[in-house]
Design a protein that fits this description.
single chain; about 220 residues; mainly beta; Lipocalin; four-stranded antiparallel beta sheet; 20 strands; about 50% strand; globular
Length: about 220
């Protein structure tokens, strides 16, 4: 797994070797072109591994803490549980967003930050781990923060709604923001992918199949 810096100069790579008890994880950073200036930054073995989810600027690498193996299911069991903002030259941790114990990450991050859920409320976090605001949330939902941080898309079994508004889009299960006014859902032969307009709740079908892999430009 890898993430490229916004200036296309450096690439962060995580290599995992999975086994029956967890995973062995290695993180390195090197030049995107040619692989020079290679730095082996971090390694660990255990029940948790890391995903490189992006860069916040050119001097902050964001990695997610994820369970190496999971069983039994449950809300947010199998995705990022907390986010670490680290120095891409040393892997020294600068900030921690969310917590594997107290407030698990509830959806993919955005340039504005991320959202964690503690069981009763959601916290909108900026990239220095400050709480920008809280949202009452008595039950688990996937939650996606818009690129500018002003809106939160809530996804449950019925579709997508926008927190604090009367916008509700039944049947569209958002997995990413395209920009600050549009979300996108993936799809398969039974569920048509769609783009939803969060200003008026309208939806447009997309003639494609697949799931969200990220957004371009991809920097955080």
């Amino acid at each position: 797994m890898f993430a490229v810096s916004p200036d296309d100069q450096r690439i962060a790579v995580i290599v995992d070797d999975f086994n029956s008890t967890g995973a062995s994880t290695k993180l390195y950073v090197e030049d995107l072109n040619g692989g020079g200036n290679h730095l082996d930054l971090f390694s660990q073995t255990g029940a948790r591994t890391l995903w490189p989810v992006g860069w916040h600027g050119t001097n902050n690498l964001v990695v997610a803490v994820v369970a190496s193996c999971s069983q039994g299911g449950g809300p947010f069991c199998c995705g990022p549980q907390e986010l670490h903002v680290v120095d891409p030259a040393t892997a020294a941790r600068r900030f921690t967003l969310g917590s594997t114990i107290a407030c698990g990450i509830a959806g993919s991050p955005s340039p504005a930050g991320a959202i964690c859920w503690d069981g009763s409320q959601s916290k909108v976090l900026n990239w220095t781990a400050g709480t920008v605001r809280t949202i009452a949330m008595p039950e688990p939902k996937l939650q996606y923060l818009s690129p500018n941080g002003s809106q939160v898309a809530l996804v449950d079994n019925n579709g997508t709604s926008i927190a604090g508004t009367n916008i509700s889009m039944a049947g569209i299960f958002a997995c990413e923001w395209i920009d600050d006014t549009h979300v996108m859902s993936g799809g398969d032969p039974q569920h048509q992918p769609r783009v939803g307009n969060v200003t008026n709740g309208s939806m447009v079908p997309v003639a494609a199949q697949g799931d969200c892999a990220g957004r371009l430009p991809g920097s955080l």
